[in-house]
């Protein structure tokens, strides 16, 4: 394990923007004019603290330009609101979309920041009426806000959860439609997709991607080229932060990220369907 500051360790992420997009993505910047594969997703796709995320490994394996559009804590909205990214997907040979949680998107109960989707902006009058004893000015992040609502009333929270799941499905269908190129849906999580009690998956609200069930993935399967499930092996999970690069002050945060072996395993699973698509 290395604990040097990121700049000293050389892991700068080379943040870059494409065209008129206002969002910074992990670099190095790639040419969108060349034949390419686009990768959309959240923290897992971005590859926080990992020198070679699965996007880089897939690029090496395929010998094909892979553009990492991963956004830290990103949700579906950041991509739907970015015409530059959508255009890059439409011209891509294929697009890999990481399954992102249902909490980081605007819905009829609350709004999130259009680019920093984990940022809570405002509660709607509907949510304020449902939780009329909650001061929403106390919250800056969606997950903390939702955790507080669940603690306040698990019964009322079921109404919120169902709304988030419906909004997620509608938004994912729209994203897949706008992407245009063949889509590979990627589940990249320590938890398996299932339809069990979401509160039993982990402590608090549950495991990421939050509130997304296997039944929800089934609704999307007819719309995508393939759905791949990557759940890190016991070896990957036991490796912890081995090989990751982070400053000492972020050691605890690093334990919550996908590690080096997990990214290698994701790349291994993705290479086969992408190779088949590129060979057509």
3D architecture notes:
The protein is an alpha/beta fold. The protein has one domain: 3-Layer(aba) Sandwich (Rossmann fold). The chain is 39% helix and 12% strand. The chain is built from 12 helices and 7 strands. The strands form 2 sheets. It has a 5-stranded parallel β-sheet with strand order 2-1-3-6-7, with helices on both faces. The protein has a two-stranded antiparallel ribbon with strand order 4-5. The longest helix has 26 residues. It is globular. It starts with 5 loop residues before the first helix and ends with a helix. The N terminus is likely disordered.
CATH class: Alpha Beta
Structural class, from helix and strand content?
A: alpha/beta
- Helix-strand string: HEHHEHHEEEHHHEHEHHH
The number of distinct helices, counting runs of at least 4 residues, comes to 12
At CATH level 2, the architecture is 3-Layer(aba) Sandwich
What is the terminal-to-terminal distance? 42 Å
Query: Which percent range fits the helix content?
Result: 25-40%
CATH homologous superfamily, by name? SGNH hydrolase
Question: Average pLDDT value?
Answer: 93
Structural domain count? 1
User: What general outline do the C-alpha atoms trace?
Assistant: globular
How many runs of DSSP E, i.e. beta strands? 7
Uncertain runs are 1-8
Give me the side-by-side strand order of the main sheet. 2-1-3-6-7
């Amino acid at each position: 394990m290395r604990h040097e500051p990121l700049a000293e360790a050389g892991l700068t992420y080379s943040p870059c923007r494409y065209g008129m997009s206002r969002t910074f993505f992990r670099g190095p910047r790639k040419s969108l004019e060349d034949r390419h594969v686009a990768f959309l997703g959240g923290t897992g796709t971005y590859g926080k603290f990992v020198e070679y995320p699965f996007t880089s490994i897939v690029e090496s394996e395929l010998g094909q330009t892979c553009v990492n559009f991963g956004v830290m804590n990103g949700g579906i909205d950041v991509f739907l609101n970015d015409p530059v990214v959508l255009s890059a997907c439409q011209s891509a040979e294929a697009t890999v979309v990481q399954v992102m949680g249902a909490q980081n998107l605007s819905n009829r109960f609350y709004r999130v920041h259009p680019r920093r989707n984990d940022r809570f902006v405002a509660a709607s009058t509907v949510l304020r009426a449902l939780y009329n004893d909650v001061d929403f000015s106390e919250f800056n992040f969606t997950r903390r806000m939702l955790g507080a609502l669940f603690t306040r009333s698990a019964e009322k929270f079921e109404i919120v959860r169902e709304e988030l799941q419906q909004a997620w499905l509608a938004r994912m269908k729209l994203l897949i439609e706008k992407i245009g190129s063949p889509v590979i849906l990627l589940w990249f999580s320590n938890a398996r997709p299932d339809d069990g009690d979401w509160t039993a998956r982990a402590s608090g609200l549950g495991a990421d991607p939050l509130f997304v069930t296997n039944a929800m993935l089934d609704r999307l399967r007819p719309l995508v080229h393939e759905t791949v499930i990557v759940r890190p092996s016991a070896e990957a999970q036991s490796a912890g932060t081995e090989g990751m690069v982070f400053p000492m002050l972020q050691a605890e945060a690093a334990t919550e990220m996908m590690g080096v072996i997990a990214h290698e395993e994701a790349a291994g699973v993705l290479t086969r369907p992408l190779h088949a698509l590129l060979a057509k």
